[in-house]
Amino acid sequence: MEAKKEHGLFKKCERLLVLCIFMYIVFIVRSYLSIVHVILNRMVGYNKTEVLPYEVGNVSLIQRSGLPNYDLFLPSDAEHPSARFYSTWNVNASTLPSKKSSDRKKVIIWNPTSRWPTPNAIPCLSLPQCEFVKKKRRTIKTEDADAIIFRGIHGIPRKYRRSWFPKTRPDHQIWVYFAFECPHLTRGIDLISYAGVFNWTMTYRNDSDILAPWGHITQVYKALAENPPTPNKDYAKEKNKLVIWYVTDCYQYLSRTKYATELVQHIKVDVFGACGDVKGSCPKGDRECLKEHVRQYKFYLAFENFRCIEYITEKFWHNSLDYDIVPVVFGASKGHYERFTPPNSFIHVDDFESPEALAKYLNYLDQNDDKYNEYFAWKTKPPKNLPELFESRFCDVCKKLLRASPTERKVYTDLDRWWRGENYEYCEPIVWDGRLKGKNNAVRFP
Ligand SMILES: *[C@@H]1O[C@H](CO)[C@@H](O)[C@H](O)[C@H]1NC(C)=O
Ligand SMILES: *[C@@H]1O[C@H](CO)[C@@H](O)[C@H](O)[C@H]1NC(C)=O
Ligand SMILES: *[C@@H]1O[C@H](CO)[C@@H](O)[C@H](O)[C@H]1NC(C)=O
Ligand SMILES: *[C@@H]1O[C@H](CO)[C@@H](O)[C@H](O)[C@H]1NC(C)=O
After folding, report:
1. Number of DSSP helices (H) and strands (E) in the chain, helices first
2. Which of 1, 256, 295, 423 has a CA 20 to 30 Å removed from the CA of 375?
3. Atom 14 in ligand 2: which residue has the minimum CA distance?
4. CA 347 to ligand 3 center in whole angstroms
5. Which superkingdom does the taxonomy of this entry point to (predicted)?
6. From 50, 181, 226, 408, active-site residue
């Protein structure tokens, strides 16, 4: 009797053990599969055989002034040019469900990563009317959210799949497409398949529903008001070096790489980062070190990886403006820089017929301190009509939700064209030949 009982118990344990081993195997296989998935996603767009809209087969097709002039991109008349990429309508107010008891808005940040959003980006402390919730997908009730923010670069499937998204989608709920980077970096996502999915956009571009720029002129002047610069300061005096460039991506087919290759033949450029003097570089993310390093120089090459309309990144806003150095910019058109940045705060490469002419001008400024200091005059003269203070992109989501009428509806019927341009013209085309940061295609600046 006892033995039989024991035997039964043993059987039970055995079954449990087999089940455990089986579950363990499933778990291991699943994690391998997800690693493969991540790798595949990383590779998106780097595959030579994949035909993507930006691909051009011939390097010589890329021209330095390949960007059209987009200064008239957003005319001020009533007919908004992007309107053909979305639809708006109103629903009959009497058909809406009766109001919730609280006016507080709930915003879900869908599928966050360890690096996004950065901890100090949320919550939006100045606006207690909004609650932000970070959630891994499918582990949360979403029906009561007013908006859900989706990360549009590595955070959504390559092709739209209803099953990947929240199970229910109430009509009042706003799905936000958030892209921090430019269209070249979303090229692996088939945005055509996302037609009719997202209600709002949140990007660095000024015609987004929510502006999420890398920097903002009002923030710059606000910081200066708190920490005013000495009037008539001689910025040239404290500098003993000429041109600095921090660069980690020197893929040979980027137009900035071609430009810089020529520039360094005419002026001494100290190159730091993966493509230059690695040993002398500041550790990644060490802003104090960077500040001390950069300040010794007169000019900073704020060259964007990609030339896309309105795409002006931290290279301009932080590495240059914050560190009392004159940025030499390469990226969006001059008109765009002028529209978004402090007056006379930069030197644009398009003003020069060649890198050699630019080098000559930099040497001229090096010899002429008064002229050089003119590039800092903006610091003590804020423009009269500064745009409304931009606080943070998450606060702006909250503000827009609070302002929105409950009957308004909007959806992007052609997100792809809105984002990349009707004929893919919002970014300069680029040759994709192997991996961008791969060593084979990198140029080194000794
Ligand atoms: C690029 O195109 C030009 C003109 O069509 C041609 O002469 C050249 O050989 C091409 N280069 C490559 C690498 O295909
Ligand atoms: C809205 O719906 C109500 C009830 O169905 C109807 O009586 C009213 O005429 C509708 N209003 C409009 C503007 O369509
Ligand atoms: C950005 O867009 C807003 C709203 O459409 C407009 O009022 C503003 O002038 C634009 N800003 C710039 C710098 O173009
Ligand atoms: C958001 O888009 C969906 C899908 O097209 C639509 O059904 C819904 O009414 C939109 N909601 C809002 C608030 O615009």
Report:
1. 10, 13
2. 256
3. 92
4. 23
5. Eukaryota
6. 181
